[in-house]
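User: Can you recover a sequence for this backbone? Please restate the input before giving your answer.

Assistant: Of course. Working from this structure:
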């Protein structure tokens, strides 16, 4: 039986190895689902499709040669997407100045503009409005340990 954690660790290592000479690029997450393998990568200025294709080919060499997942697997390499939660510190830093929705581990939902990102916490500025009139603005420090998820607020 295949040790999926070992395969995941190997894939993470391969991606990091490939990106080692590109300090502006970084691995966000490797997800192993029953029917597919998803690899999410990003860059400080945004990831290009060509880079995702290069990573995909690099990982396919390992997967096709060593066959840790057998013959049948679906590999997707992409950016995390705007609607996926932020996972790593560099993603947060890239989004300073953007509106975010933070769900705390206690279930509390906060919305505001991401102002600062530190090693252990973020700062958002929450604006309380009433009928388009700003009542007050609060700066909230939220420790990463208290964050269940953070997503970008998409305004259309």
């Amino acid at each position: 039986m295949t040790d999926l954690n070992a395969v995941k660790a190997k894939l993470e290592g391969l991606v990091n190895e490939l990106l080692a000479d590109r300090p502006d690029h970084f691995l966000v997450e490797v997800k192993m689902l029953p029917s597919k393998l998803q690899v999410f990568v990003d860059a400080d200025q945004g990831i290009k499709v060509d880079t995702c294709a290069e990573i995909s080919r690099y990982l396919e060499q390992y997967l096709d040669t060593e066959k840790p997942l057998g013959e049948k697997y679906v590999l997707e390499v992409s950016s995390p997407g705007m609607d996926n939660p932020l996972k790593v510190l560099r993603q947060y830093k890239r989004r300073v100045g953007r509106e975010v929705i933070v769900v705390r581990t206690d279930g509390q939902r906060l919305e505001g503009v991401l102002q600062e990102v530190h090693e252990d916490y973020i700062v958002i500025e929450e604006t309380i409005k009433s009928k388009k009139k700003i009542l007050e603005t609060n700066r909230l420090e939220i420790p990463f340990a208290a964050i269940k998820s953070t997503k970008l607020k998409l305004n259309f």
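That completes the design. The longest helix spans residues 49-66.
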